[in-house]
Amino acid sequence: MEETPPPLLGSNKPHLEKLTLGVTRILESSPGVTEVTIIEKAPAERHMISSWEQKNNCVLPEDLKNFYLMTNGFHMTWNVKLDEHTIPLGSMAINSISKLTQLNQSSLYSLPNAPTLADLEDDTQEA
Known about the structure:
- Helices cover 25% and strands 23% of the residues.
- The chain is built from four helices and four strands.
- A hairpin with a 2-residue loop joins strand 3 and strand 4 (85-94).
- By secondary structure, it is an alpha+beta fold.
- It has a four-stranded antiparallel β-sheet with strand order 1-2-3-4.
């Protein structure tokens, strides 16, 4: 069972700013937005990543492995203040490695079968 550490404000950890692509800073400076919190999980262990790769017969990209070695996912939430009420507004989450699911790519739209500009109809010739 995963432990949930106490929520962090986004500006407390600079690496979280990078992980959220600056969304934390934007939210914290937006009028009406309150209680921007991030629950960050402890880093994954290398054997957890290797185990997932073996189980799914898939090699994860190095940047994703590095992400999980830095933090095993996170959950960010924010609220908005309307009149006297605080209303939950948004949520952004990246699952832990144990909840990562491999998606099977459809061959219909994968290269070389992807649609191109040549597949579009030319409406100018019909007039």
